[in-house]
Structure formats: structure tokens, C-alpha cells
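Researcher: I'd like a structural prediction for the single chain below. Treat it as a standalone chain; there are no partners to consider.
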Amino acid sequence: MSQPETKQPAVSGAAKWIDVLFAAAFFAHLPIGYEYYRRMWSVGHYQFFPLLMVAASWMIVTRLVESQPKRPKAKLTYWLLLIDLVLFASAALMFSPFFWILSVVLLVVIYVYDRWGWEGVRYSSPAWLLLFFVVPMPANLDLKLVNKLQFLSSQLASYILDAFGQVHFREGVVLITEKKQFFTEEACSGIRSLFSSVSAMAIFGVMMRYSWQRHLFNMIQTVLWVLIGNAVRIASVVYLADNVDESFASGTTHELLGLGNFVFVFLFALSTDRGVNAWYASTPDVTRAALEDDEVEEPVVDGVVVARSTAFRHTANRPVVWQWALVVGFALIGLFSARLTYAKSIIDNFRFDETMLIASYKTDLPSRIGGWKLVSFEHQERDDTRLLAPESYVWTFVKDDNRRAIVSLDSPYLDFHNLSDCYEGFGWDVDYENRYLDLDNDLNKPVNLTELKMKKSGEHGLVIFSAFDRDGYLVRPTFDVNYDPTRGMEVVRHLRMAFGLLTQENDPKFSKQTLPISQVQLLHVNNRELLDVSDVEQLYVEVRARLLSSSRFEK
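Model: Treating it as a single chain, here is the predicted structure.
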């Protein structure tokens, strides 16, 4: 019996033009892609994204080779590309990696549609939907998730340390032993392995052709194993670093322990998945076929097998104006984004040398201020800077009623640093108030400062702080400065950057700041609420004025 003839779809001149258009679109995305790569690589819990993109690409190709080609509506391809062009233009004008990756995912979907039709888009959807694992959450939701999981991980780790008799106590995300304090992120909160573990299980599920219900179950059970695994890891790091060797808290040993934790989490999640399979296999009413995608038969038309690996292409002549307009549009926006990426690397991504800051000394503050007496001074330098500044000069004052106020000069910063995030990390509930006047240097009154009122397990705290550049000029919070960028203002700023009309000298975002930034803060903690804060505020005003008149801020 003779085998049916294999037929390859025809390829026309219009199809060659659409290839040029897709090539132009993909190349235009590269400049902002560099910024996307740089930002994602700098955040630990997204560093797995190159491997996931490779895995997703491989599985998209694998599924499309198996899918049935279907002639798409060519005109719809152009309309979809026009939508993607608008989305890409928005990403370029706002210089937004978030909109950029959405534009890339849409471009991949359009390409699949143009070659394989909606059937190909549907059949490959489990693979290209994996790309959304490397889309950063909007509105810093991922950072909020980080904070929540850090608290939960540190609490679970504290219970484990109690079970093993390790003497310690916990303040928010900080675990403190007799020898050392460990930030939860330093001990490792597990947020890094959360996204990577869930993504790994999603890739496994796509390979196994699971239904969406099975994917959802696997993600939930993986999150639970991540929490368990990382609570064990935190407790292990604290115990081993405190009792065996400090190398378990940093360096190569610490990283190897983290890799072992990821393998532990993934294997237990995989074992749970296999256990579910075994349970389904022992249940007569449920078959494994219900958990997998249907196989795709080779299409046969009039005794001719249509090759799976090649899709139907455009066979009719299409208006060249559509193609040329879209090619030029992607090319122009690609050139704009390349120029803007280069300009921003010069203006926004500059570095500074901390040695430009002059050291502070105990004598920069007097031994007595009002009823407050200076009792100690300390210079602190830190390797881990997730919650605290790299360098601090700390003065401790006490009053006759046994009240204590800790004054610190913290640096270096690139901009105003809201300390509410730091104290929330230490377990405080924080309400903050900004008091800023139009006159930048009116610093002899309790104004031009940020005040935090805090509560935690029977304790009440008050923090007052202000930020200053190297010349001693006030640095306001971003939402209080004269330069308060809206989306429209950011677009205008990027346009000026790209066309060379904006430099660091005439940029309102930086023109009043001589980096690096230092912050003066005062911390007062008491076991009862402080109803009258006037004397603490007055102490801060006097301290701030003295420090600003020291040699550190000489103009």
C-alpha cells in the first residue's frame, strides 16, 4: 500500500515580507531587553529567568512541530502587530521593563498565530504562558510578598531553633543569638527559591501535559514545600553559623546550602506530584488521560499529509504599505529605545565614591543637650545592607528619667530613603508623617523632617529623620519635592534624554543633589506611649543643626 504524498505549504512573496516585519519587531525589542535583563538579574528571586525563557522557547517549538497548521487571516496579523507596536512604544516612552516583557509575549503569540493560526496559539499556550513567570509584578507586589514570606519564614525558623534548644530571640525578620544577628534574607528567607521552584514545577507540568487544575494544585503544594524547606534552611544557617562555622552564613558554603535547599524543595514537590499520580492510578473512576492533553493526529487532505513542522503561509498579495509602515514603526521605536538606553546609562546609572564623605566624630555633638546626656559613641560598618545603611555614626543620649535616645548619621544613599520600610522589617507597626515646608533650610524648628510613630508587642517607638546631600542641602521625599514626576513628565523627560536635550546638569531630578546622601535620624523607644514628643523633637532639631555645621557638610 503506497504512502500518501507529503505536501509542503506554499510560500509567497508576501510571506517573505512578513518575515522581515517579524525580524524588525524582534530586533527592535533588544535595547530595552538589556535594561530588563539588568534589572531582573539584580533581583535574586528573578535570576532564574534566562533558563525559564530557554525552556519555554524549546517547549513552544516542540508543541508547534506537533500541531496542525491552519491558514490564518493575514490582515488580523497586521492589526495584532499594530497593537503590539503601540504596547512597545509605551514601553519605550516610559522605559518600562514591565510593558516590554508584555510586548515580547504578545509578539511571540502573534508570530505563532501567523504561522499556525489560533489552533497553534491554543495548543502552544501552556508553553508560552510560562513566560509570565518572568513578568515582574506591578506596584511592587513582589516586594510586598517578599516581606510577608520573610516574616513567616523567620517565625517558623524560630520555632525550629526553639525545638533544638538554640538560645535566640526574634525581632521581625532578624534572628539574634548570643554571638551574632542574622537577617532573614541573609539566612535566606526562601523568596528566591519560591519563584524558581514554582516555575520549575510549571515547566515539569507542561512537559507532562497536565491540565490547568493539575498545574494549580502543583503550584500550591510547591509553595507549601518552599515555606517548609526555607524555614529549615534559615534555622540550619543560624545554628551552624553560631555553633560550627560562620562560613555557613556567607560565601560559597552558604550558596551551596541554598542550592541544596532548592533541590530539597523541588524533589519533595516532585514526590508529592508522583504520589498524586499513584493515587489516581489506584482509583478506578479516574484515568491519567484526564490529566493530559489529547494527542494530535497528522492532518490528511485528499490523501496528502500536510507536514507538521511547517505552517500555512500568506499566499495572497497583501498591501505592501501595511508591511512597510509597521517595519518602519518598529525600526524607529527600536532606534529611539537604543538611544534612550544609552542616555539613561550616563544620566541615571552613575556611581559615586563613598570616600568623598568626611568622617564624623564623637565631638561633633556636645556632651549635653538640654536635659539629655551623651553616654556613648560608636562607628558601625556593615557588609549586609538590606535593612540598615552601609555605614553609621551612632551617639546615645540618656535623660534623668531613664529615657534613651539613639542618634545616628547613616550613609551613603542615592536618594531619600524611607526608614519606615526598615522598621517594618524589624517587626514594628509604623505610621509616618512628612513635615516639609517650601523653605528648604528652615531646620531650627521641628519641620522639614519625617516622623514615624511605631508600636510592637507592648513597646512604643518614635523615629525622626531627615536626608541631606554632601553639601548639607535638604533632600525631600520623592512625592514632596518640586520635581514630582507623573507619567506624562517621565515621557517628556525620556524624549529629552533620547534627543540629547537633557543632561545631569539640567535634569531637575538631580540638579539640587550632590551625592552621596546622608540621613540624620533619632530613635526613641519606651514601654508606654509618648504623649509629649516636644522634648524629643527639640533634641533632634539641635542634633541636626550641630551635625550640619560639622566638617562633614562643609561646602
